[in-house]
Amino acid sequence: MITSPLVRSHDLVAIGFRLAGTEEEYNTPEMVDIESTVLDVVRTFTDDHRIAAVLMAWIKVHGRYVIVEKLGKLYEKAKSEQAHIPWLTMVAAWAVECGYHKWRKLVTTEKGPIYLYDPEVSESAIQRKGAVSWLEPYGFRIPKDSLRLRKADVLTPKELIQVNKQYRNRYIFGASWRADIVTAIQNGITTPMDISRTVGCSYEPAYRISREYLMATHQPFTR
Known about the structure:
Blueprint: H1 9-15, H2 34-42, H3 50-62, H4 68-81, H5 87-97, H6 119-129, H7 157-163, H8 165-173, H9 177-186, H10 192-199, H11 203-216
Helix pairs in contact: 2-4, 7-8, 8-9, 9-10, 9-11, 10-11
């Protein structure tokens, strides 16, 4: 069970985490943003490294449907409000390892060594097992086999499509602003300015895409 104040169990369930000890329904009318939740999870790594393995399993299954540009914008905003968060590089590097090359733009070389948990314990484990080789160039010292990635910890794409409208629209339209603009409209947000604020995109695509979608679905368009 996740207890960090930075992320709600409800939000993790909404994007497809299987959490033991929660009876929350996966299908929820509340709009939970995928990128915002991913970034919140990344910020918890230092407090609970177990969640890192679950997120990385989620990336393995669903990383293709993350809007990397949007995640980067949220990350830049977070950096302006708090200390640097190195763990996004770890997650992005893993996504690249999984074949999702658009994540490469979020990979930077950090000032290491960076440990996921106690440095002395980590180095002892590295002496016995070695380090995760694909992370070392970016400044991370993570022992091999210290992260248990299990696909069973997250919903399958077929399952998540059924319960998450934002994810389903990305399957239809691709991981794009269009998908999220359509999702916002389906959630009752119809003016371009409100869509822009909700989705995080600029006004121009909010105006253009909402106008196109509402026209195609025979709904009134409001500036």
